[in-house]
Amino acid sequence: MNGTMFNQLTVFHTIVREGSITKAAQKLEIASPSVSNALKALEEQLGLPLFTRTTRRIELTEAGKLLHEQTQSSMTDLNFAFERVSDLSKVPSGKVRLTLPRFVYQYLLKPFYLEFCQRYPSIELEISISDAAIDILKEGFDLGIRFGDRVEEGMIARRLTEPMKEALFASPRYFERYGTPQSPIELSAHKLVQYRFIASNQLAPLLLIDNGQSLTVDMPKALIVNDTDIMLDGALSGLGIGRMVEPMVQDYFASGQLLPVLQPHWYPYSPLYVYFHKNAQKAKRVRVLIDFLLEKCGVST
After folding, report:
1. In DSSP terms, which residues pair with 143 in a beta bridge?
2. Is-contact 46 31, C-beta < 8 A?
3. How far apart are CA 213 and CA 133, in angstroms?
4. Does the fold of domain 164-269 match that of domain 3-87?
5. Model's pTM, two decimal places?
6. Which sequence spans correspond to the domains of the chain?
7. H or E segment at 287?
8. 3-87, which class in CATH?
């Protein structure tokens, strides 16, 4: 592959990822006509159109889909290879894109990301909050953090935490007013501050463990939220019973602002993992973030 074709394919993949020529130009920090010309040259060389264009959107043709599928892995490998060689003479630098759910940002990243940015001032850290299962290669991320059962296949994953449970809790005022449930069946007489996933728009099922078996519980709703801060606000105000992974509410338990309930029935979740493409860790800018996360989580590198 010559340099011209490599550049043209880089432009092509950026258009696919960004969804438009204008956004691809912004991402590549070049003029839109240069992106259009590179795409046109690639299409002329192949003798086939790669996109269908309308005034509103740009979509891959069948030829475009095939080219994208056949070259995506190779382009990723080449980009990482060039970067790895270039890294030999440089301090860690460049953009690192990280995707993670909001609660993971609050629990794992918020206490430490400032230190990372100060330690590596030449790295531009981009943090993207999402509760969806992200295809990091397709979406252009360098790494992600998710529960182990939500890490996509084919990724390398490093464990960051121990397994955790989803806690149920409410304020002392709530329990004084409505009583404290002593078994899962009694939850039907209480109200839940429920969580709705932003990406899927689905309500998160409330899962408990009863006699060693998984149990889905349906409770009346006091409030439906798509943000963990609002979840805590609703529980702290005495509106209903909240639900969140245990480490996020330990300080509230310690202070007595929130009280745990039905602890023997809390549902277990897998550890959190940082995950990435096999070649991503070879890039110095990505590797230092992986090592930093492992260091702060007390995991041996």
Report:
1. 98, 276
2. no
3. 26
4. no
5. 0.71
6. 3-87, 94-156+271-296, 164-269
7. helix 284-296
8. mainly alpha
- Measured in whole angstroms, the distance separating CA 119 from the mean position of its chain's CA atoms is 23
Q: Which CATH number fits domain 94-156+271-296: 3.30.365.10, 3.40.190.10, 3.40.50.360, 3.30.1070.10?
A: 3.40.190.10
Whole-number Å distance between alpha carbons of 295 and 291: 6
User: What is the rounded CA–CA span in Å between residue 199 and residue 210?
Assistant: 30
Q: Is the dihedral of CA 132, 110, 266, 172 positive or negative?
A: negative
Assigned architecture for domain 164-269: 3-Layer(aba) Sandwich (3.40)
Tokens in use for 165?
């449970």
Tokens of 95: 């953009």
Tens of pLDDT, residues 244-265: 999 999 999 999 999 999 999 9
Q: What is the pLDDT of residues 50-100, one digit of tens each?
A: 988 766 678 889 998 899 888 887 887 777 676 666 666 578 888 999 999
CB contact at 8 A, 144 and 160? no
Distances (CA, A) of 99 to 85, 88, 125, 141, 276: 26, 27, 11, 7, 11
Strands (DSSP E) along the chain, which ranges? 51-53, 58-60, 94-100, 123-129, 143-147, 156-159, 164-170, 192-195, 206-210, 213-217, 221-225, 242-245, 259-260, 267-269, 272-276
